[in-house]
Write a structure and sequence with these properties.
heterodimer; A: UDP-N-acetylmuramoyl-L-alanine:D-glutamate ligase; Protein-Tyrosine Phosphatase, Chain A; 36% helix; 20% strand; B: 6-stranded mixed beta sheet; 6 helices
């Protein structure tokens, strides 16, 4: 058996590997050091996490985990130095890389892939865990929703001392609530949807299988539910968002009502799903003992997480990038777009890499239809561009309005060409398409690569 | 002509974009001057005898599938009669399993099927996930799609598969067959959804539904440029990364 290397030597060696990877031009090198460490000595990850003087917190969800975690980081920034996997590398290797990079960190703040929750938490032993939502996502990778929920129940049971901050509006997640934690949710039926969306997932009672009655359905199956048969209902909320104001693409505001008091939260990010993200981030921060003022100020400063919602100037035009990756997330992106100004030209990029999901059937569960009326031209791109074009054609968009341009770069150029000077081009990419497009835009000098962004 | 479609359990069995298949039926029927009358047939609803030309049932997660299995068993008689009298039927994934005689899970518990197709299914250890390409000699065509199932479906002796697996797992990962067809009923694991990129199969089902309604019609082909391109990409995916044990 190989004698274990001293942790410091090991850490220095794998950090150097990350630098080499970047110098060699192989993308961000964000997970290479972590992957190496994991291979060399997985227990070293536990040791690095155990060194953090304030311990760790973890955030997981199908949708919004990157944004929510970044919001928490912004709230904490003036007070605490954090080790944060802020480029979305959210498996064990990404967490390991964040631990390696932030050597003087006081607190670990980790976004965790919903499928990797148990694996990460049994290494970093978070003192608090924020669980946001569970939607159907990449069934080819994660398996069925019920399976992910069962794994979460096990992961949470193995952490009896962690504070659980859970979204009570999601039946599967709300069921995890326990004393000492926080339950958050929305309390503003004015912004509810008239009916459950097509792709709503957990719409049958967890206990008896009867369809829930919704007093308000906010995003997908998230809302104020009650089973008409057995009475299983949304748990009582500790932290709520009231008087929600949605300002199209320009932002949102809400009143945060918590045991600590009340504050008006102003967000630069749009959409009800970002209200959920902010509410979750606020609940976690409050649970960590951060004051209401710091929560409010941090959320007001927050602009966007990597690639999720970005506006980038390209010459005399702008590009609006909204990540789409599963039906619930894409539906909210579209709802937000249409409530602002529905685009006349859109570039929609569908890749089928492992990180996107190889199974592209989810696009048929997305409600793209609200976009159709205003859409003059669709540029369908990515490795499954034709499939996406079919989705719109069978959705009712005239085939003459659809252009299939599989090359992402060429599609971006075509979209810009169709966009008048001074106007904005809407781009909706899946995950790997977003990375590639961002790389192209960075190479042209318009945005900074994420691995160069850290201060 | 109105083609009467019975969509079984759309609220429960809809996991792999089943509404895409329905959208294809609607659009391609309309292009030939026919309208579709889509009825949802849900829990506790009766199946109107002789009044449905084309049935559709999709896939669900295990939980949803269990919720509907017993209700479906109660509809077994009218559904089998409909197929014996020439109604067309497409069943995808979980719906395909439920049309067989039974589904046995890992613990050995059996979920009843309706025995409309000569197959049975048992749960395997590993899920079979990936792109698939089939050759359907009976039609002189191919089908490209995506599969994701733990169930191993076994054809009875003499039963007709939907196709021969060119790439991918198929019914059970070993037999080289995928799906099952019986009269005008077809069961398959292929989703994606199946029909947008395999328009010949949608047209065939619509023609068969029309035949049930007493209309003998062969459709003129549609341009289908996007469909051909999507099929080609999907078929290439299956060839390069279709699953095998």
């Amino acid at each position: 058996m190989r004698p274990p290397l001293p942790l410091a030597v090991e850490a220095a060696a794998v950090r150097a590997a990350g630098t080499l990877s970047r110098l060699a031009g192989r993308g961000g090198g964000t997970t290479l050091p972590g992957k190496l460490l994991w291979k060399l000595d997985p227990a070293a990850i536990d040791a690095l996490a155990a060194r953090l003087p304030q311990g760790s917190v973890a955030v997981s969800a199908t949708n919004g985990k990157t944004t929510t975690t970044a919001m928490v980081a912004e709230i904490l920034r003036p007070r605490v130095r954090v080790a944060h996997n802020d480029s979305g590398a959210n498996l064990v290797s990404g967490v390991a890389s964040a631990l390696l990079q932030a050597r003087d960190a006081e607190l670990g703040l980790f976004e965790v892939d919903e499928g990797a929750l148990a694996e990460v938490t049994r290494r970093v032993w978070p003192k608090a865990l924020l669980l946001g939502n569970l939607f159907r996502d990449q069934l080819d990778r994660y398996g069925e929703l019920e399976l992910v929920a069962a794994r979460w129940r096990e992961a949470v049971a193995a952490l009896p001392h962690a504070k659980l901050v859970v979204n009570g509006d999601d039946p599967q997640v709300g069921a995890l609530a326990r004393p000492g934690g926080r339950v958050f949710g929305l309390d503003d039926p004015r912004v509810a949807r008239p009916a459950l969306q097509h792709a709503a997932d957990s719409k049958y009672c967890l206990r008896c299988g009867t369809p829930y009655d919704y007093a308000a359905a906010y995003v997908g199956h998230l809302g104020d539910y009650r089973c008409p048969k057995c009475g299983h209902a949304r748990p009582p909320l500790d932290v709520t968002a009231r008087d929600i104001e949605l300002r199209g693409l320009d932002g949102a505001a809400f009143s945060l009502v918590a045991p600590e008091g009340e504050a008006r939260i102003e967000l630069r990010l749009p959409g009800l799903y970002n209200v959920y993200n902010a509410l979750g981030a606020a609940s976690l921060a409050l649970a960590l003992g951060i004051g209401l003022d710091d929560v409010r100020d941090g959320l007001a400063r927050f602009s966007a997480a990597f690639g999720r919602f970005e506006r980038i100037a390209i010459g005399d035009r702008r590009v609006l990038v909204l990540l789409i990756k599963n039906p619930a997330g894409a539906n909210e992106a579209i709802r937000t777009l249409v409530e602002g100004a529905a685009p006349t030209v859109a570039v929609i990029a569908l890749n089928d890499g492992i990180a996107d999901g190889r199974d592209v059937s989810w696009i048929w569960d997305v409600d793209f239809e609200p976009l159709l009326a205003g859409l003059d031209r669709l540029v369908a791109t990515g490795s499954r561009a034709a499939e996406l074009a079919l989705r719109f054609a069978y959705g009712g968009l005239d085939r003459d309005r659809i252009e299939v341009v599989p090359s992402l770069d060429a599609a971006l150029d075509r979209g810009l060409e169709l966009t008048p000077p001074g106007a904005e081009l809407t781009v909706l990419p899946t995950y790997t398409a977003m990375l590639a497009l961002r790389g192209t835009i960075a190479a042209r000098g318009h945005v900074t690569n994420y691995w160069e962004r850290r201060s | 002509m109105k083609i009467r479609v019975g969509h079984l359990y759309p609220d429960y069995l809809n996991i792999y974009a089943d509404r895409g298949n329905i959208a294809v039926f609607l659009s391609r029927a309309r292009a030939r001057g026919h309208e579709l009358d889509v009825h949802a047939i849900g829990m506790g609803d009766t199946v109107p005898a002789g009044e449905i030309d084309l049935f559709y049932v999709g896939g669900g997660q295990d939980r949803e599938q269990e919720l509907v299995a017993h209700d479906l068993a109660a509809k077994s008689g009218p559904l089998r009669d409909a197929v014996e009298h020439g109604a067309a039927f497409l069943a995808v994934c979980g719906g395909y399993q439920l049309l067989g005689r039974f589904y046995r899970d890992v613990a050995g518990t059996e979920l009843p099927g309706i025995g409309l197709l000569p197959v049975h299914t048992f749960a395997g250890e590993r899920r079979m996930i990936g792109d698939v390409l089939l050759e359907c000699e009976w039609a002189g065509e191919t089908l490209a799609g995506f599969e994701n199932h733990a169930g191993r479906t076994i054809l009875d002796g003499g039963a007709e598969p939907l196709g021969r697996v060119v790439s991918g797992f198929g019914n059970d990962g070993v037999s080289g067959f995928e799906g099952c067809r019986y009269k005008r009923a077809y069961g398959t694991y292929l989703h994606g959804p199946l029909l947008p990129r395999n328009p010949w199969f949608a047209d065939r089902l619509l023609e068969e539904a029309l035949a049930h309604a007493g209309i003998d019609e062969r459709f003129e082909p549609l341009p289908d440029d996007l469909e051909r391109e999507a099929h080609a990409v999907s078929a290439a995916r299956a060839r390069s990364r279709g699953g095998r044990f």
